[in-house]
Amino acid sequence: METEEHKALRAAVAALGTRYGRGYLTRTVAEGRHPTELWSDAGRLGYLGVNLPQEYGGGGGGITELSIVLEELGAAGCPLLMLVVSPAICGTVIARFGTEEQKRAWLPGIAAGTRTMAFGITEPDAGSNSHRVTTTARRDPDSGDWLLTGRKVFISGADIADAVLVVARTEDASRLKPRLFIVPRDAEGFARRPIDMELSAAEKQFELTLDDVRLPADALVGDADAGLLQLFAGLNPERIMTAAFAIGMGRHALSKAVEYARDRTVWKTPIGAHQAIAHPLAQAHIDLELARLMMQKAARLYDAGDDIGAGEAANMAKYAAGEACVKAVDQAVHTLGGNGLTREFGLASLITAARVARIAPVSREMILNYVSHQTLGLPKSY
Q1: Which DSSP symbol is given to 222?
Q2: Which of 238, 259, 289, 344 is catalytic?
Q3: Is 207 a catalytic residue?
């Protein structure tokens, strides 16, 4: 189904991922640092900005191409979470709605990997209900500056990002009409605090505090009246890329299990010859392939400009990929038995990581709500 160009991209990224692998990512986590070498190489080779416009240093592709990059790095055991955040969400929003000055200032650096941007939407009291966002933006009548006040939680990579694309609402808004602001990391009144996570990941999570952070008028991205259109221009790619992240992780775990089942011999027979081992692995493969098909559909709809169709497909893809990933990782660990819990095989850490795809950026229950309301036309309970 893929074009020759997509096949070539997939093969090239897989080769890069293989050069680094799971061992590299595990070491960076243990050392408490970021995968800067892999990030730099991916940027130098043009993979980080493959979805961004060519006139701003990107590859001129779309989320279809960027999802291939993330999936193949994940299949090699070294996915880059910031691919979801910086080029997929922030880069896409700026490319679609940013001013010419914003595009020139940010897109070339995001594409090259020399600049990164985090995304701030989740809040302590809002959770998955983005309509309860309380971070407010008010206009200084004298200077025309914006003043932002609020809190954000579970913001990935805020320690390495040059800025955060913050979702806020105006103080007089009776309903959510989100406005997006570029907040530099060194802005006065802008603070971050690391969240102590049991999840083993190179990208850290942060709580952000905005205390009357003053921003110039041109910090606003896009039209002040565009509202939800601009927000979902970033959220749909986020869901598609989360699906790619999960599918890549599931593929990595499954490949380790298949290799082990093929080679591990008990009573003179490879354990993979037994249907109790083989069939669950085959089912995991089928589930991952089905999720990948929906992800590809969502990416193509989004790249074609069908935001409504992409919204439905992106949610379904994220749901399917999260479920498939968790099952694949669980079956992989179970296939290896005690070895599945050793550092040598590197699968145990994926047990926690796989569950992230069920929880973030939106829970599977909220996706089921979306499908039941938007697709099936059933009434809401809230």
Answers
A1: S
A2: 238
A3: no
